Amino acid sequence: MTVQPITLIWFRRDLRLFDNTALQTAIRRGLPVVGVYVFDNRTDTPEQRNHRRLSFLYDSVAAFQTALQAKNIPLYVLHGQAEIEIPKLAQELHAAAVVCADEDEPQASARDNRIWHKLDSAGREMVRVDDQVVLPKASVMTHNGRPYTVFTPYKNAWLQTYSRLFGQWQPADDWPALAALQADLPDTLRRPPVLPSPETLGFIHQPTMFAGGEEAAQKQLGRFLEHINTYHLARDFPAQKGTSRLSPYLSHGMLSPRHLVFLAKQADNEGAGVWLSELIWREFFKQVLFHHPHAAEESFRQEYRSIVWENNQEWFERWKTGQTGYPIVDAAMRQLKSSGWMHNRLRMITASFLVKDLLIDWRWGEAWFAEQLIDYDLAANNGGWQWSAGTGCDAQPYFRIFNPILQSQKFDPDGQFIRRYVPELAHLGKDVVHAPWLARESIDTHGYPEPMVNHAEQREKALALFKRNDQTE
């Protein structure tokens, strides 16, 4: 009896139907397709420790399973290690090939290479395609064939390459071909696979500020597009809903980066232009990590790899829990802890404070954000932290140090955001809420702590520390 072979699609950070490169590639191979998603059961990963992010992913996978089933594509949801589960399922389902979207994390790439060897030894193909970025990471290079390390020339080259390759972009329509293929799907695979419970997958389901799934992503995208023309005016003010709030959906692939760039260029206004630059920053950080994988573990710039950080554990705990005595920093850290998300301006402020005021290794902060963020993405998180620390490529110069009080006064002028997350200060007016310890008269701060460090003094220490290492090379 002849067994019907299939193409197995391993979905990772591409939980959508629209403009899904792996799905399109699988359909064009001409065999019935079956999907799989693996919840990693290892307890040493940030993903496993973050029940809020797992809850968001679970809701998204559940919605995606329903959407795929409407296209007659079964989605298996497994709990284990992909290195074991993918080859095993491919054998059980008689898969001729496994198709997946490439991941840019060095550890993920190494894992995929091991899986490729297992599949190859069993006579199966593994096809990896670009989907997380608009342009392939090695397609935008300098004239001498080297990767860019400065953003502005990279952006200019990126836009030129995009115009050449995607001048008239439109998503492919492979659904008619899929319907014909799925008619040959074996009867044993037509019954929808059971979605394991959160408890079975090893986490406790929690409500999140982001609804999971592609449909929710499209709704949020629609809301953002209604005010994209004012994005450049409102994006730096955390008390306002001025950012897109699309990062979780983009990070986990519920939105197509190609579609977002297309919409930004189609809008053709100043706000859309600034948002497009942010999307290109995302591409920039991903190509940096692709060409320089060592940046995932250490400073991109060699001269800063030997910095001797103070790494005060007690100070780090106070930073994590929002007890530094600097209201804007504490409000931001409490937002992160309570919601799994933080406004981008606040990510820069809190990162600068940890590195330049507390003299703590940026990798400590990067790891904490990795544990907490629903929208966690290694390249974006690493790139953002190294930019703030001054250790990355095209980073903020080390001598540029955010003053948390001035940042607070500039971007939360009325103190609205501070009062929302630091209720101890909710009764204070805008003239004192940014730095209550400087008030001319005694005020009740309901137990809110005094500043843990003197910013001016710590600034001088940070300058000396970086300058000393800057001169060692």
Automatic annotation (TrEMBL):
FAD binds at residues 231, 243-247, 275, 278-285, 375-377. It catalyses: cyclobutadipyrimidine (in DNA) = 2 pyrimidine residues (in DNA). One of its GO terms (molecular function) is FAD binding. It comes from the Bacteria. Residues 5-134 form the Photolyase/cryptochrome alpha/beta domain. The record marks W309, W362, W385 as: Electron transfer via tryptophanyl radical. It holds the Pfam family DNA_photolyase. Binds 1 FAD per subunit. Keywords: Chromophore, FAD, Flavoprotein, Lyase. InterPro entries: Crypto/Photolyase_FAD-like_sf, Crypto/Photolyase_N_sf, Cryptochr/Photolyase_FAD-bd, Cryptochrome/DNA_photolyase_1, DNA_photolyase_1_CS_C, DNA_photolyase_N, Rossmann-like_a/b/a_fold. Transmembrane segments: none annotated. One of its GO terms (biological process) is response to light stimulus. PANTHER family: CRYPTOCHROME, CRYPTOCHROME CIRCADIAN CLOCK 5 ISOFORM X1. Belongs to the DNA photolyase family. This is Deoxyribodipyrimidine photo-lyase. It comes from Neisseria zoodegmatis.
